Amino acid sequence: MPPAPATTSAYPPGRLAFPHRHLTGIMGLQPHEILFLLDTAEEWIEPNRTRAAPDKRLAGLTQINAFFENSTRTLLSFEIAGKRLGADVVNMHAAQSSVKKGETLIDTAVTLNAMRADVIVIRHMSSGAVRLIADKVDCPVLNAGDGRHEHPTQALLDALTIRRRRGRVEGQRVVICGDILHSRVARSNMLALTALAAEVRVCAPSTLMPPEIEAFGVAAFTDFDAALEGADVVMMLRVQNERMSGGFIPSTREFHARYGLTLDRLARAKPDALVLHPGPMNRGVEIDSDVADHLTRSAITEQVEMGVAVRMACLDVLTRGARGVEGWA
Ligand code: CP
């Protein structure tokens, strides 16, 4: 069950603001811990824009980004985040690694650990793979997306984008539409947004809707037009063909007709409703270009910008113990 929603950003006094060694998911985080990460990320937005005074607080630390699955945004933003904080950042792409020669995930993890990484960022196609590695290594591990399970930093950057553009997350009607069944982004967002007291609606064809979805504290819709009524935020997700076997939708054309976000359809949401998409987008399938590129309604590039700040915050907070930061060591 999700934790009770947070209605305040006050952290409980006398407790470590973020007591977790790893960030493997939003599941298990308390609302005030999510807010702490958002508040910490907020502090990096302006320095990232002005690049005025570099803060190399991770100098001397080694960050390994081990990506067993393709990525543009997450890999690059973790790399930029680590480098802006002064870490030595090394990227391991599975396609060029010994994984291709049959090495097991555990052996790869033990190898990375033996190189004395100070923090490891992992993307993997299997749900639970990040937790498996976290249990085998001596340093903090950050989940950059594992299978259909979770993508916690994506949910954090989405929440930060919503908070900045709408003023708050609490009470916002957020519609998440697309392939809910296969989406780790949907799962992490349902957990984070309900924890922050948003009203979350999920919308998908019945074939792409997980059973017992209401256990997440969200309302499920198969009619996109109905789901959009009065929405403050519309988050579109792509159909995850790489995680499917068999036909979950009759055709992309039909999917677009029923679930694609067009300007006409967006008119059902509030006049100032915000449009989000984690990327990569399939233009003309789940979202039309005139929505994706809309100057005032689309916050898709802002999400990417927030991604760097959120990942800087997560790298900073998870390495505080190792860096001997007062109160965290
Ligand atoms: N949103 C996201 O995870 O994008 P990438 O797959 O490009 O990292």
TrEMBL record:
UniProt keyword annotations, A-Z: Pyrimidine biosynthesis, Transferase
GO biological process: 'de novo' pyrimidine nucleobase biosynthetic process; 'de novo' UMP biosynthetic process; amino acid metabolic process
Sequence ranges assigned to domain Aspartate/ornithine carbamoyltransferase carbamoyl-P binding in this UniProt record: 21-163
Residue span(s) of domain Aspartate/ornithine carbamoyltransferase Asp/Orn-binding: 171-317
One function term, GO molecular function aspect: amino acid binding
Top-level taxon: Bacteria
UniProt KW Cell membrane keyword: no
Coiled coil: none
EC number: 2.1.3.2
Record-listed carbamoyl phosphate binding positions: R73, T74, R123, H151, Q154, G279, P280
Binding residues for L-aspartate: K101, R184, R238
GO CC term (a single one): cytosol
Gene3D superfamilies on file: Aspartate/ornithine carbamoyltransferase
Recorded metabolic or biological pathway in which this protein acts: Pyrimidine metabolism; UMP biosynthesis via de novo pathway; (S)-dihydroorotate from bicarbonate: step 2/3
Catalyses which reaction(s): carbamoyl phosphate + L-aspartate = N-carbamoyl-L-aspartate + phosphate + H(+)
InterPro entries: Asp/Orn_carbamoyltranf_P-bd (IPR006132), Asp/Orn_carbamoylTrfase (IPR006130), Asp/Orn_carbamoylTrfase_sf (IPR036901), Asp_carbamoyltransf (IPR002082), Asp_carbamoyltransf_Asp/Orn-bd (IPR006131)
Oligomeric form and interacting partners: Heterododecamer (2C3:3R2) of six catalytic PyrB chains organized as two trimers (C3), and six regulatory PyrI chains organized as three dimers (R2).
Its biological purpose: Reversibly catalyzes the transfer of the carbamoyl group from carbamoyl phosphate (CP) to the N(epsilon) atom of ornithine (ORN) to produce L-citrulline. Catalyzes the condensation of carbamoyl phosphate and aspartate to form carbamoyl aspartate and inorganic phosphate, the committed step in the de novo pyrimidine nucleotide biosynthesis pathway.
Family designation: Belongs to the aspartate/ornithine carbamoyltransferase superfamily. ATCase family.
Name of the protein: Aspartate carbamoyltransferase
Organism: Sphingomonas guangdongensis
Gene transcribed to yield this protein: pyrB
